Amino acid sequence: MRQPPFIAGVLAVLVLAPVPVSSAPAAGAAIPCEPGMEVGPDTAGHCCWPGQAWSGARCVGRPTSCPSGRSPSLEQDACVLEACPPGQARPREGDGCCWPGQAWAASRKTCVGKAACPAGFSALPSLEGCQADCPAGTARHPGGAFTMWSAGQQGVAVTPFCLDVTEVTAKAYQECVAAGRCTQPGTGGACTSGVAGKEDHPVNCVDWHQAVAYCAWRGATLPSEQEWEWAARGGEHGWVNPWGNEEPRDQLCWSGPGHDRESRGFTATCAVGSHPRGDTVQGVKDLSGNVEEWTSSRYDAAQLVSRGDSWRLANPKIRLGTVRSHRTPDSRDEVLGFRCSRAP
Length: 344
Known about the structure:
three-stranded antiparallel sheet, 3 domains
């Protein structure tokens, strides 16, 4: 039986047309690689991490560079995903690190959704993230930028930090001495160490090295003077005094007009936290009055900065949040103490 001409033509095409087969990309053609991988001079056309070579079966060698979120691993001959920060995890392999309750939005390369913060963390104001809680006895201060009046500097940046709510007390300091990590402070005069009834007063008569040693014992440091002024002026509020712009009277332990130090039986220093009307917006106490405080900041090659004023102060016109002094590190004074700071 003869086929119609058009059917015969189709059959001829089906028989003669070659069947397509896969082939290697033409020389110079781009090979799609996983983000961060590349075809290098020693990879025989295979996708490897930068700095690797092809062994005939796999990529070998420690990668010389890795994309963001990965780090080189010699054991695995690869760029492996970095461990997530404490409290976070990857919803799936390849995702970014998110807080519990969040999902990874690949198109936006960010975590989305309300975070369910784990223990030790609290929600950010936006609720789309968490922040580490500050240890007990400290107050969290958000970061920011401000004009530092004491040094005449604009745009001074401060990162978040946790500041002791109170100045270090004579009792707390003696615990460090008992642990063998601190040396005895000075005594006599208005020094508080070893004086019955002044265990809850700020320790004074300590030099800079002793203050540093105590803070290190607690896993902390002295605050920088930038941190100190940021806290003492209410952060972004930029107040004159820790409690606001109202002139000082009985908000602090001092010797100026309206003070209540002597009427309350305080002959020099006062018990820490005994003047709550002088607290900062974050609840930090005695950033004005009681004792000046050592900082970690240098004034020059030979001296360090101390901030604040003391129980001796009597001038109500001083901007208390900006008082700045400088001393050699071996200085001890009955008007000088300290508190500690740390990162969240």
